[in-house]
Amino acid sequence: MFSSQSFCGKIKNMLKEFIKGRVLVVIDAANLESAVKDLGWWIDYIKLKALFNADSLFEIRDYCVAHNTENQNNFFTFLKKNGYVLITKPLKIIQEQDIGKGKTRKANFDVEIAIDVFELQNNFDTLVLFSGDSDFDCLVRKMQERNKKVIIVSTKHHISRELIESGNKYIDLKELREFIERVKE
Fold first, then answer.
1. Which long-range contacts does 163-169 make (Cβ < 8 Å, 24+ apart)?
2. Beta strands at 92-95 and 103-106: parallel, antiparallel or unpaired
3. Per the database record, which ranges form the NYN domain (predicted)?
């Protein structure tokens, strides 16, 4: 049996094979949380950050809707204290025009993520994108045109074929479970 430290080392070695230079980690929180919820487990964000060597980690960014609840505000404080850069915005509720359709809830961060990655591109060599959204295919290709490595992390039912094909490496989130799962105490 391996120790948890050797497991973490195993994953870091796997990532090191695909990572070059400085690393920017971008988390599409809605996409990531939906994926792990479907898998039946939750992320330990301390463990997730520990996957990346502190020396090469430029920044780890979490894009998340702000519900302004005490519980979520405490979680955001926890993330900030642990080195995450948070990008938030309020949930937008749109009343549908058609009678009986109700309301649509939106808090999409695709544009913010793309703009931030472009603005930060001189600060990193590898982008690790925790999302499976096909809208990021263009971003991935543009980063590769600029000699950036792009690693996509998602799950089978939350990843688009375009991202699997365009990224330098696709990692199924299930492969990381034993290293980043939040364990209830």
1. 163/129, 163/131, 163/132, 163/133, 163/134, 163/136, 163/137, 166/137, 166/140, 166/141, 167/129, 167/140, 168/18, 168/144, 169/18
2. antiparallel
3. 22-173
pLDDT tens for the chain, residues 1 to 185: 333 444 455 666 666 778 889 999 999 998 898 888 888 889 999 999 999 988 999 999 999 999 889 999 999 999 999 999 999 998 777 666 665 666 655 668 999 999 999 999 999 999 999 998 889 999 999 999 999 999 999 988 888 888 889 999 999 988 888 888 888 76
Answering whether pTM is above 0.90, one says: no
DSSP state of 136: G
| Burial status of residue 101 (CB atoms within 10 A of its CB: 0-12, 13-18, 19 or more) | exposed
Sign of CA dihedral 81, 83, 89, 91: negative
